[in-house]
Amino acid sequence: METDEEFKLAAKRLKAEGQRALTKEERARRRRALDGLDVPNFDAFVVDRGASALVRKPTTILQVNIGLYCNQACSHCHVESSPLRREEVMSEAVAARLVELIDASKKKSAIKTLDVTGGAPELMAQFRPLVLAARQRGLDVIDRCNLTVLYEPGQEDLPEFLAENGVKVVASLPCYSEANTDAQRGVGVFERSIAALKRLNEVGYGIEGTDLELDLMYNPGGAFLPPSQETLDVAYRSELGDAYGVKFSKLFTLTNMPIKRFADYLHREGKTEAYMKLLVDNFNPAAAEGVMCRDLVSVSWDGRLFDCDFNQQLDMPMKGGNGGDGGLSVFDVASLDELVGRKLAVDNHCFGCTAGAGSSCSGSTA
Ligand code: SF4
Ligand code: SF4
């Protein structure tokens, strides 16, 4: 980034004008900006194309990004997780407040699912307490698992913990080819992912006759839309089954969102404008009707409230509360029922959720 001529020039110009130079963060923000690309207004576009207005409904899914620390540092990661992000981890106080809000949100909302993501969520101190609290309350729990976490120190009993508590595992495996997966997620990741899938199969995950769901997530390795879910499901099932004896429940495809590391990639390749056009041209009203932000609340590791995990990573919190510019937090609301009817915070990146099959089956993968 330091060698990026565009931002060097911008910084020079500001200095010449007697203003301060751009901070590293501001330069990143500019590089990632999707403004000025002739992208239509998302709000109006959705309604024009026959989907309902983007307004919050009663909450059914509480998605919690429990911390940004991860044992991997994948090239497409929209949360920019890595082993360096040790500080951004959910506290006991925020986790306890979440449980209070689940209990308090009964009038309009009926929270059915706790969806835990990260980073590598299993490595956070609050992961197991939150899972147990949610299961005691009868909620379904989703763990967005990067698979290799099973081989981190202290995680030897993770498959048994997840199985005993009936946690649904949603795992990222960007391709059934070793070369493609390692290119996106790091050398050796494919081999360890396959070993982890087999370990999950051993305790019953993905096996017919058990209730233990093991879903896989595919996302494209470049600036193109994913192929059809059905076609890819068949290919994954035969490739992973024949070569490795791995079983899974369902395969989901996700569109890459034009934010964070993927936005950097688009910028580097000079593909931002073409990718945004691809997303707009492939707008699907059914996907717009089903965008997860309509009935999901996303909570960051520090307790702030967002319409989705993507907005969380773009620092677009729900407005209001006592946090000033920081937006609304779990400590500002008595229950999630208060959020019903609020206008959703949408912008150009949202076209990633409505292109083709969309990117919104409860959002991100870990
Ligand atoms: S990016 Fe978030 S706010 Fe935008 S449409 Fe998708 S889920 Fe909704
Ligand atoms: S994509 Fe998932 S596994 Fe990869 S760095 Fe991000 S959070 Fe970690």
UniProtKB/TrEMBL annotation:
Residues 225-364 form the Arsenosugar biosynthesis radical SAM protein ArsS-like C-terminal domain. CDD domains: Radical_SAM. GO terms for molecular function: catalytic activity; iron-sulfur cluster binding; metal ion binding. Pfam families: DUF3641, Radical_SAM. Gene3D superfamilies: Aldolase class I. It comes from the Eukaryota. Residues 64-206 form the Radical SAM core domain. The keyword Metal-binding applies. Keywords: Iron, Iron-sulfur, Metal-binding, S-adenosyl-L-methionine. The keyword ATP-binding does not apply. SUPFAM superfamilies: Radical SAM enzymes (SSF102114). NCBIfam families: rSAM_SeCys. This is Predicted protein. It comes from Micromonas pusilla (strain CCMP1545) (Picoplanktonic green alga). The lineage of its organism: Eukaryota, Viridiplantae, Chlorophyta, Mamiellophyceae, Mamiellales.
